[in-house]
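A quick aside before the break. I want you to see a complete sequence-to-structure record at least once, exactly as it would be stored in a machine-readable document. Don't worry about memorizing anything.
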Amino acid sequence: MRADWTQPYYNQRIDLSSNICYDIYNIKIKLDLTKYNDPFYSYKILSEFYNIDIKNIAIGLGLSELITRLFIFIKNQNMSLTIIGEPTWQLTTLLQAEYNIPQGNDFAYIASPNGNNGNIESIQSLLKQYKYIILDEAYADFYKEDVTFSDRVITLKTLSKSYALPGVRFGYMFADNSITNEIQKIRPGHVTIGNIDYYLPFILNDIKNHVKRMNETKKYLIDNNYCSYSYTNFVLVNDTTIFNNNFKLKSNRLALTNLEIIKKCLKIN
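That is the input. The structure line, written in tokens, reads:
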């Protein structure tokens, strides 16, 4: 369940409850919310950075907007969908029910790593069972550097998780152009926020540094038995009382932050 929207959300504690890392060394960006942005330059930057043809890329105003378009596409094509993994992203199950998409073997949606428990899943066996795989790699930068992409795999990524930038609403996908062509037909008129194309090359090149910092924190917490292993930007802590005075948690899930902040809050030199 989401937080109560009738009550203040933020408090004095660092909020590490929503799978968004708190990294003091990330690039500080200033978006221009007074103008529409020409998305072509963002497409060009993504194409050159990942070495993927621009026709195989679609940008969304956040990953949830792209997911919605994908499910509309599946519905319009009278195709079926199976959501793999438990627990899964609640939005996907809600959209499948809302659009009345039947269960079947046309598409399979899977998040790897999983945004709830941090586990990874193999898609090799799924490729034998389903025509297309929608592979949500929102957290994948935290355990591997390559992008999974083929004519049968639709890969989803987002700056919200890769670089702790939920406010820029920048999600993107790689897919066969027969799919991206249909996805682009139903895109909204505005999919990027003003000035994002200026910062995008710096952000993409700095993701590795951000991930390295967060994984250093993860390793420290695991090595000192504060938590179990996760392939994502968060860990599942063993004892929440150790962290509750300084961090806002969601259940026992702790999004990562800089190691010096963790040590300071735990009063460790």
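Two observations worth writing down. The chain has eight helices and 13 strands. The chain has a mean pLDDT of 92. We'll return to this after the break.
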